[in-house]
Amino acid sequence: MSDLRSRVAYLHGLAEGLDLNTGTVEGRVLAGVLDVLDDLAEEVGALSDLHGELADYVGEMDDDLSAVEEEVYTEPEIIFIPDEAQIEEDGVSLVCCPNCGQTVSAAAGRMSAAEEEVTCPVCGCTMDADEIME
Description:
The model has no long low-confidence stretch (mean pLDDT 78). α1 runs antiparallel to α2. The chain is 49% helix and 16% strand. It has helices at residues 2-17, 25-73; strands at residues 78-81, 92-96, 103-108, 117-119, 126-128. The protein starts with a helix and ends in a 6-residue tail after the last strand. The chain is rod-shaped and about 105 Å long.
């Protein structure tokens, strides 16, 4: 962008070096054109700077959105823990399978409310996830 500004500055210098007579109609037109070129070079430079800032901002938003997508759309993870000694830990619940009656403890990882089904590790019966969530 500085190339455009320097080219317009060169034209201004050239006009001054040639002793452009602004008293004539042609001289006023050329001086006006040089002024418009100067304004355009400044505007294009400002727009280029703004474009760079917006590109950086969009990149940051894309990174943030990727983090949110990873948090929201990650497959739910349900871990069955057959050892009842771990029931006291956070996120672990007892589940009694309605089919085989086996009591197992289950730790629910990231899971959306009642959208998921849980499969009993003993008999393969499926249960609603909200049955094991508090």
